[in-house]
Each structure stands twice: as C-alpha cells, then as structure tokens.
Write a structure and sequence with these properties.
By secondary structure, this protein is α/β, with parallel strands linked by helices. It is built from ten helices and ten strands. It has helices at residues 52-59, 82-89, 107-118, 128-141, 146-149, 159-171, 189-206, 217-223, 241-246, 250-258; strands at 12-23, 26-37, 41-45, 67-72, 75-76, 92-95, 177-181, 209-214, 226-231, 234-239.
C-alpha cells in the first residue's frame, strides 16, 4: 500500500512526493506524499476546504504544484510543457460529479468526443467507422445498448445511465487512471451503492487504477483498498478504511465517528457485480 515518501515504481500508477500548492501566498496543500498502486482503488476523503479539489486538479495535470514531484505511470509531469501535458492527460480519465455530459449532443457524440478531440494528436487517425465501433463496444461493455441510447440526449437518461455514459467517455482513450470527483454526491443511498459497484466493476473489467475524491464515508468503506484522510491540506491518516476507523489516529477515528455512518453494517462492493444500467 502507498507509503509516505515511497519511490516511484512500475506498479505505481500515481505518486506524489512532498507536493505543496499555494495561491497568493496561502498554502492549500502542505507536503503531500501519496502512492496509488496500479489496479487498486484509492479514496481521498476529507471535509470542505481540506484541499481535495486542489489535489484532484494536480493529479489530472490541470494545474502544477508550487513544489514537489508528481509521477503518472512513472513519468514526472511537473514542469512539462503544455503539449507534453496533453499527452500525459490521455493516460487519465476524469469522471465528473454529475457526469458533465454535453446536453446539446447525443450520447454517441458525448462518448466519441475524446477520440475526436484527440484524433490529431494520436499517431494513427481513426476513421469514422473505427470511432463508431469503439463507442458502441464501450457502451455495451458498460451495460448500455448502443442502439437504444446512442441517439438519445443526456436529459433522456436516468442518473445511473448518465453515470455509465460518463465512465464510457472517460475510458475512450484507454487511460491508466480513472479519477472520480465526488461520484456519490447528492445521490440517495441505493443509487450511491450502485455507483460504488460500478466503480469497482469498471476497475476490474478495464484494469484501471481508481482515485476517488469523496466525503462519503460509506462509499469509502465499500470500495477503498487505500483510504487517505486529508485535513487542512495535510494527509493525517492512511490505510484500509478499517485501519482508519480503528487505528492509532484519533483524528481519523473522530472524523469517521462524526460522519454518523454505522460502519459495522457496511460491506465491500461486489467485484464485477454492478449489474445492468439503472
């Protein structure tokens, strides 16, 4: 599991070493050391103002740290020129809080968007036929019938189906890492569990590393192999969810206790068990 200050290894998908981030002299992140192992799920939890969003933006290369090193699949991305960052970003898929689909275009065009957007920057330009085949295959693999949903618009789909479409779009460039921004925010408990199952199903089926930014303790216990507690820009505890809840860190135990979640009744998301779209 991710150890503070660990060296960047082949099996590590994302590594942050002593990462600081400041805005106008105000330090938001204060020496972050983090390792997300390839093929595993890391959940970063914390309250409002903890620095989760800033950390997310650094991981997906939308911003650069004030100091420190960030490795994506073994490559240090700090200081890279924008063209090189665009290449690195193709290793990262982003699943936004409310799927963030484009309302004015069809589901097919939403999923195809990354391929069309990055077609000129890839070595081999894809034909329209190849794009169509890849979109249809991805929708099918995520439990959606491309013929039924491909021509629809986002507003015509349920929340669960939109979430699947968002993941399909994020997977189109075959990323190493999928980053989820508050995937269960605003959802009822049943839908939240379905999204948890989907995250784990996607990790297993596509072999991606999942990094989940969340405040949802129940979700963390269901899917995290590594849970990381971020408070006021510092990682104050890390380990399995059980280790945070029952370990030596009083801060972590208190944070989980104050969430009001009865962790004794939580179970892991079933591997490959998300089922069909809802």
């Amino acid at each position: 599991m991710g150890k503070p200050g660990a060296e960047s290894r082949k099996e590590d998908a994302v590594v942050l070493k002593d990462v600081h981030k400041a805005y106008d002299g105000h330090e938001v992140l204060k020496g972050i050391d983090l390792v997300a192992e390839r093929g595993e799920t890391t959940v970063i939890i914390g309250g409002s103002g903890a620095g989760k969003t800033t950390l997310l933006r650094l991981i997906v290369a939308l911003e650069q740290p004030t100091s420190g090193e960030i490795y994506i699949a073994g490559e240090n991305i700090v200081g890279l020129a924008e063209r090189e960052l665009n290449r690195v970003r193709q290793k990262l898929g982003m699943v936004y809080q409310y799927a963030a689909l484009l309302d004015s275009i069809s589901i097919f065009d939403n999923v195809a968007f990354p391929l069309v957007e990055h077609r000129d920057s890839t070595k081999e330009k894809m034909t329209k036929k190849a794009i169509r085949e890849k979109v249809e295959s991805m929708l099918s693999q995520l439990g959606l019938d491309p013929k039924q949903v491909g021509t629809k618009f986002p507003s015509e789909l349920s929340g669960g189906m939109r979430k699947r479409v968002g993941i399909a779009r994020a997977l189109m460039l075959e990323p190493v890492v999928l980053v989820y921004d508050e995937p269960t925010s605003g959802l009822d408990p049943l839908t939240s569990r379905l999204v948890d199952d989907l995250i784990e199903e996607t990790r297993e089926k596509f072999g991606v590393t999942s990094i989940v930014i969340s405040h949802d303790i129940a979700s963390c216990f269901r899917i995290a192999r590594q849970a990381v507690l971020l408070i006021e820009g510092k990682i104050v505890a890390r380990g399995t969810p059980d280790e945070l809840a029952r370990g030596d860190s009083e801060v972590a135990r208190d944070f989980i206790a104050k969430s009001g979640v009865d962790i004794s009744h939580l179970s892991r998301a079933p591997v490959g068990g998300a089922g069909g779209a809802r």
